[in-house]
Amino acid sequence: MIEFDHVHKRFGEHVVIDDLSLRIEDGEFFVLVGPSGSGKSTLLRTVNRLVHVDAGCVRVDGEDVAMRDVEALRRGIGYAIQSVGLFPHRTVAENIATVPRLLRWSEADIRARVDELIELLRLDEPGMAGRYPHTLSGGQQQRVGVARALAARPRIVLMDEPFGALDPLTRESLQGSLKAIQRDMGTTILFVTHDMDEAFGLGDRVGLMLDGGLVQVGKPLELIHNPADERVREFVGGTR
Ligand code: ADP
Ligand code: MG
Fold first, then answer.
1. What atom of ligand 1 comes closest to residue 35's alpha carbon?
2. ipTM, 2 dp
3. ABC transporter domain spans which residues (predicted)?
4. Mind giving me the DSSP string for 46-86?
């Protein structure tokens, strides 16, 4: 589904991704975890070509993303980030409808999908569809951001610390919603966080990233009970 094949990326002299290879399976919830600056966002952004690799290759469905039409590629991949990036002058419904509109869905299909997502993400306060982002709480804005990323039922969704700014309860509730939706839809999710608890709670598999490389990839319990080396033990132990 998503394949990183000997990916290298540097910014100037600074090597940010160092010969990284990884395969993410169809329908998998994969979490990249690691400290700030380890290269997680950069790696994630190579998938939708917000970052171009210097060497190696990133494949989606077996096809090198560098060979794809970039607009078509991005329409097929949901993307949600911490700073939400909702369009301030568009209503909740119009924000959620962004990609379906680009894909020329019918009005009826768009309306039905917006209603469905508003319910799935528990945004169902009266009049929510017609409200503007600045009238929402931080948690509600994040929910709209997630709804927008999922709107066109992409098979792949990239999420970069999407719940970073939320209080623990809101965060837990959103994690639950996301996991349920992901299971139902069979979506492949590549999720980035620096929070080990979040990684272990969400991930089918987790990859620990340090200094531009993957130190260990495995099921959460494998990293906890069978850390590959001292760095893994330290990171797992230190943040829990
Ligand atoms: P993470 O998401 O794990 O915190 P990033 O991928 O954002 O890490 O960044 C990894 C390293 O690359 C950091 O040292 C960061 O400063 C650097 N970096 C990221 N983007 C750029 C850029 N556009 N130009 C220069 N350096 C960058
Ligand atoms: Mg980041």
1. 3
2. 0.97
3. 2-236
4. HHTTSS--SEEEEEETTEEGGGS-HHHHHHTEEEEETT---
